[in-house]
Design a protein that fits this description.
alpha/beta, Phosphorylase Kinase, domain 1, Rossmann fold, Dimethylsulfoxide Reductase, domain 2, 4 domains, 7-stranded mixed beta sheet, 6-stranded mixed beta sheet, 32 strands, 29% helix, globular
């Protein structure tokens, strides 16, 4: 019997609509739905391989407990929860709640229910030590809007864009902002309509190949280029004067800060043509509507706050914000949008607003607890030392900076717990591995992508779209699996804790907490009930969307952007002091001598996998089973190294062995290498099988941004030699 069922992909935040073909209850094929009014049939290899993920021979079907000899043994999930709860209660009783930390990895932060329960659990035990991947990925996405001020009405719709600037991002592959949920289709449509595309990237990426202007700079010069573009727009007087005068402050200080960034200086520092920089600035300066989107390449190469802030400053100078009287194209379905007001409350505090770390005089910022401090928080003796860590949907051994330090820290823990469907490099170190169901076995919905709509232009849905999909398949026969969020509910119940469920639908965290629902801890809710509780303030009631016949656009009343109230004094700040100081420092910076480390290692993504996940799924290793070190052919010829050879890559901090491959799309002088690969550093290294971990080249205690704690994770000075 052949049956077709819809599901919402949980591999990344984009939440694609998948059509699963079942034959006699078994997955036969997975594809996108060409009739979907938003995705138009889009799906990627990662989503289409989710059936292989569910049926992988290496998947955990039972939870595991580490034995005295170091090996793992299967344990009933309920029994594992009981034992973990007892150990957590003991640690908290002896050392206080700060001794317990939680890390929410990618597979937690893209699943709103999982993330909500993990945060509710952290609040219930009273620990401030909750961290996620934000401070090692794109922390500027959180800090920059706080420094500038959030324009509540958001950015113009994509259909209105006359120009798009992409800096260090490749949405055609990553889907991380800039071009919506079907990026290749969207950029083709926008370019055909006449939109101009400018890309800043050391690689000629899939997005750069479609650009009108591609600035291919030396890595680590994104701030220099952004300042140069802004300077040229100011020199050309290509400002939206009415908007700048009415809605901003600090224009004079901004001008003074960027004037040293002449086209000649930028060209020399970034290794680009001055005339091309000017041409890019004039394309942007001539566009009445447009957008700027920055990605991990820009955020991970140093100065994440400054570069994201300058992107918003450029958009502000051009007036690229939605105005009063315009219609808000998506008035919200599962997530309530920000108030439709053409104004800003003004800047908000972004630094020193959370827990103070015991190391390097660091504090939490609006981007969260600095992940770069966690390993040292586990290793530094004294009151407040982290003694227990729960890893929710992540693989820190491969993903965190300074892998050796991370592994040393995990070995120093009293308790390490991982919620993971596989025995990952981190799970292999864990005392307990809790085996969860995977996406196709769960009720899923479109809330994840809608939630990310506030991240910037080209994120989320531009139309009121919604979908709830029931489980497509049952867990394997004989397995003992729970949904990931259930583990936190059951841990809380076993510890006699009360969980308060905040409203996921509300973007203001204080408002969401104020609307939190106390859960009945005597009766575990079903998944549908849990979603309905977490989304109780959604514009469209969850149960109403759940009973809808399928995915689609939702009929919602029009929302018109209102002018800001007359008594509002908030303005967009073009001259945040921390950014002006950074600009002054950057322009005086002396380039590092290159005799010891002549290359720059830059991050990238592979199309078939998500960072540290799915490395053992053959369906996703069709092209690369490891993470090559991609280099320009001229560099390989100069070093007399053949493609496919092993090379030693050294930084000032560490050394890895990689497999080098030719890549004409990479700028000479660069090593383009995906992060979050490799193995545990104490195991035999197999670069042709597992790849190499670039985190070994990164020190967590130097070259980091003071505001967010993010270390330099791309544009890393390295040397390359035959291994």
């Amino acid at each position: 019997m052949i049956e077709l069922r819809h599901s919402v992909c949980r591999v990344c935040h984009v939440a694609c609509d998948l059509v699963v073909t079942l034959k006699d209850g078994e997955i036969e094929a997975i594809r996108g739905d060409k009739d979907n009014p938003v995705y138009h049939g889009y799906s990627c290899i990662k989503g289409r391989a989710s059936g292989a993920l569910a049926n992988s021979p290496s998947r955990l079907l039972h939870s595991l407990e580490r034995q005295h000899d170091g090996r793992h043994q299967e344990i009933a999930a309920g029994q594992a929860v009981t034992r973990i709860a007892a150990r957590l209660k003991h640690i908290i009783g002896q050392h206080g709640p700060r001794a317990v930390a939680l890390f929410a990895g990618t597979y937690c932060t893209i699943n709103p229910l999982f993330e909500a329960f993990s945060k509710a659990f952290a609040r219930a035990i009273g620990t401030p030590m909750f961290a996620d991947n934000n401070t090692i990925d794109q922390p500027g996405k959180a800090t920059a809007p706080g420094l500038l001020g959030t324009w509540l009405a958001g950015t113009p719709s994509m259909e209105q864009w006359e120009a798009l600037l992409l800096v260090g991002c490749n949405p055609v592959i990553s889907m991380n902002g800039g071009l919506g949920v079907n990026p290749a289709r969207r950029v083709k449509q926008l370019r055909a309509r006449g939109m101009k595309l400018i890309v800043v990237d050391p690689r000629r990426t899939e997005s750069a190949a479609r650009a009108d202007i591609h600035l291919q700079p030396k890595p680590g010069e994104d701030v220099t280029i952004m300042a140069g573009l802004i300077r040229q727009i100011l020199i050309d007087d290509a400002l939206d004067h009415a908007f700048v005068e009415a809605q901003t402050t600090g224009i004079a200080s901004l001008k003074s800060a960027v004037m040293p960034y002449t086209p000649e200086l930028v060209a020399e520092r970034a290794g680009i043509e001055a005339d091309t920089l000017i041409a890019a600035a004039r394309l942007l300066g001539g566009a009445h509507r447009g957008a700027v989107s920055l990605g991990t390449g820009a955020n991970m190469s140093g100065n994440p706050t400054t570069v994201e802030y300058l992107g918003r400053v450029l958009a502000t100078l051009r007036g690229w914000w939605r105005r009063a009287g315009e219609e808000l194209p998506n008035p919200g379905v599962l997530i309530a949008p920000l108030p439709a007001v053409a104004g800003t409350p003004g800047p908000v505090p972004v630094a020193d607003i959370g827990e103070k770390m015991r190391v390097r005089d660091m504090r939490a910022s609006v981007a969260g607890i600095p992940v770069s401090a966690l390993a040292d928080e586990m290793l530094t003796a004294g009151e407040g030392r982290i003694r227990a860590l729960i890893v929710a949907g992540g693989n820190p051994v491969l993903a965190w900076p300074d892998q050796a330090r991370t592994v040393e820290a995990f070995a120093n823990l009293d308790l390490l717990v991982c919620i993971d469907p596989f025995l990952s490099a981190t799970a292999e170190m864990a005392d307990y591995v809790l085996a969860p169901k995977v996406g196709l076995e769960c009720e899923t919905n479109s809330a994840a992508n809608e939630k990310w709509g506030v991240a910037g232009p080209g994120w989320g849905y531009e139309k009121p779209y919604g979908q709830v999909a029931p489980p497509v398949i049952e867990p394997p026969t004989g397995s003992d699996l729970k949904e990931d969020w259930e583990f936190f509910f059951e841990l809380a119940r076993a510890m006699d804790l009360q969980l308060q469920m905040p409203s996921i639908a509300l973007l203001d965290p204080l408002q969401a907490l104020a609307r939190a629902t106390p859960l009945d801890m005597t009766v575990k809710p079903s998944t549908s009930e849990a979603w309905a509780i977490a989304l109780k303030d959604a514009p469209v009631p969850y149960e109403a969307l759940r009973s809808a016949p399928g995915p689609g656009l939702i009929d919602r009343p029009a929302t018109i952007v209102q002018p800001k109230p007359a008594d509002w004094t908030g303005r967009l700040d073009l001259a945040a002091s921390v950014v002006l100081e950074d600009l002054a420092t950057t322009v005086r910076r002396v380039p590092l001598p290159e005799e010891h480390f002549p290359f720059r290692l830059i991050s990238r993504r592979l199309n078939d996998v998500v960072n540290s996940c799915s490395h053992d799924n053959p369906a996703q290793l069709r092209k690369w089973a490891y993470n090559p070190a991609f280099m320009h052919p001229s560099d390989l010829a100069r070093l007399d190294i053949a493609a496919g050879s092993l090379v030693a890559i050294h930084s000032a901090h560490g050394r890895i062995i990689g497999v080098v491959e030719e890549a004409p799309d990479v700028r000479p002088g660069c090593v383009s290498m995906p992060h979050s690969w490799g193995r545990h550093p104490r195991w035999e290294q197999r670069p042709r099988i597992d790849g190499a971990n670039t985190g070994r080249l990164v020190a967590n205690d130097r070259d980091y941004e003071k505001l967010t704690g993010q270390p330099l994770m791309s544009a890393i000075p390295v040397s390359v030699s035959p291994a």
